[in-house]
Amino acid sequence: MALLMYSRFMNKKVFHCFYAQLQWVMRVALWSFGLSFCCFFTFSSSVDEECVVGIVGHPVLLPCFLQHELLSFQNLSVEWRKGSELILKAEWDTDGDVETWSLNYASIPGTAPLTGNFSLALPKVNPKEDEMIYSLFLTSEEGNVSAPLCSVCLRMAARFSSPLLQRDETTESNRTVFLCQSSGGFPKPTVYWLINDTEQPPEDSVWTDATHLPDSSLYNVTSLLKVNLSKDDSVSCSIQNQWMNETLTSRSKGAKEDTIRGRASEGLWMFSTGLCVAVGILVGAGVGYQIHLDRISKKRRVLYESTKGQRRNKKHQFIEETETIKTEEETMMSKESCV
């Protein structure tokens, strides 16, 4: 009997050990399958895709959408890394509560495991982060790290100021010098020169230099053009920012265009002067007529006031005469009654 009970006990112990091992193997298999599934259905898992362009000093969103819900994994943990640097780490427990650590206030949605939206929001970016690769990883309780679930390239960009174009005629060898300057942009721009809007100047006539602004990664670009031109030729300088998809152009007019514009300005000035004179005459006439009306009105008011006094005197005299006659009549009546 004791031997039978011992045998049953050992069989039960062996069964529990086998079951525990089987459960561990199933967990490992499920973990591996989950990682493979997530990696296969990652929205932006290719580094070869177009980079996200971030404006210097502004927030930017790095998209990452997973087609598989990860709540089936207990104590889910993910990490966003910039190269090898940890940017953000988020952990969800079985109740769906999340605990997040981040660098420079980076964030991801708290409902990411439910929605599959693991996009990384950076509140502010600077040029030093240009061409950096941000990657999302899934981590386990044991510290195992998956292959990148998302990899996003980030490019920096900043707008250049409108180019300032200056022209200098007093040079040696009858060559005209044009100076084009712009600053505050990123990355290093491309500078184009055009003569009369169509002709490109010789390459050896152009000198361009782009340097960083003091204590900044933004660029200041200066370009110099030396060519033999007539006074009638026009020159334009263009600053192209590839990542901003923006081209800023400044143009120096030729003498002909300046003459035409001067004549047009002169004609416009004469027309404006004539219009002002006409308006002045009309205003003067209106003021004079108003003064005339005011004088007439004043005379009528004085005449009315004077006649008003005369009427008042006549009325007062009439009242006095009436009262005198009435008194006399009363006196006579009283005498007659006495007689």
Automatic annotation (TrEMBL):
InterPro entries referenced in this protein's UniProt entry, alphabetically: CD80_C2-set, Ig-like_dom, Ig-like_dom_sf, Ig-like_fold, T-cell_Activation_Regulation
Entry GO terms, CC: external side of plasma membrane
Name of protein: Ig-like domain-containing protein
SUPFAM superfamilies in UniProt: Immunoglobulin
Listed PANTHER family: FIBRONECTIN TYPE-III DOMAIN-CONTAINING PROTEIN (PTHR25466:SF9), T-LYMPHOCYTE ACTIVATION ANTIGEN (PTHR25466)
Domain Ig-like: 163-249
Residues passing through the membrane, by range: 268-291
Compartment annotation: Cell membrane
Principal location: membrane
Keywords associated with the record: Cell membrane, Disulfide bond, Glycoprotein, Immunoglobulin domain, Membrane, Receptor, Signal, Transmembrane, Transmembrane helix
Superkingdom, taxonomy of origin: Eukaryota
Short name of any one Pfam family annotated for the protein: C2-set_2
GO BP terms, alphabetized: cell surface receptor signaling pathway; cellular response to lipopolysaccharide; immune response; negative regulation of T cell proliferation; positive regulation of T cell proliferation; T cell costimulation
Signal sequence annotation: none
Protein's membrane topology: Single-pass type I membrane protein
